[in-house]
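Proteins fold reproducibly. Look at a sample protein:
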Amino acid sequence: MNPALKNPKKLSENEEAAWHESRVNDLWRVFRIMSEFVEGFDRMSKVGPCVSIFGSARTKPSDPAYGVAIDVARELVRREFGVITGGGPGVMEAANKGAMESNGISVGLAIDLPLEQQENKYVTDHLMIEFDYFFVRKTMFVKYAQGFIVLPGGLGTLDELFEALTLIQTERSKHFPVILMGSSFWSGLVDWLRDTVLAAGNISPEDLDLFRICDDPVEAVDIIEEFYRERMLQPNF
């Protein structure tokens, strides 16, 4: 046995106080996490069927992806879906703008990040919900969405994409459509998944069927609407 485990170092009075304070802070953190879940569940449960749209916070209005996000959101609203985004700039702003200008539900699940400090102005009154914890926020994205539409983005977008695919793959959530908008952007990633990850045996062939790639906003919403019509509306968890 490690001698250090038999005779642990005696903490100084200051160290012991700091350790105690850390434990107390952890306990209070549990309550803050619970309050975020309760508020999120309460407010999102009243929204109705929505689709989560992801993409880069750095996307400028001059970028074609910005226009695609607007068009996707407008088409979703036309089919009576609301739109959920992270409530920030870039693709999120474009999607919220398209939804609001079409008189649809426009939800923003905001979090304080270096590139997302400014919330966009295209979120329905009372539906900008702020979070401190990533995992609570991501739960809301999945639980209350009837599908994911993913536009070009960076690490945060990839994180949200692969978490959704993992939840579906491991059956920790019900299956829902995941659509990658922009074949020129996503094809390289899909080639890598097929030619490298699948070839190495690290995923199964059917895992590549967990998502679709398309370029047409109408086609993307067709996929979601068809899926939605075939299944009863119910939470993903």
Summary: The chain has one domain: 13-230.
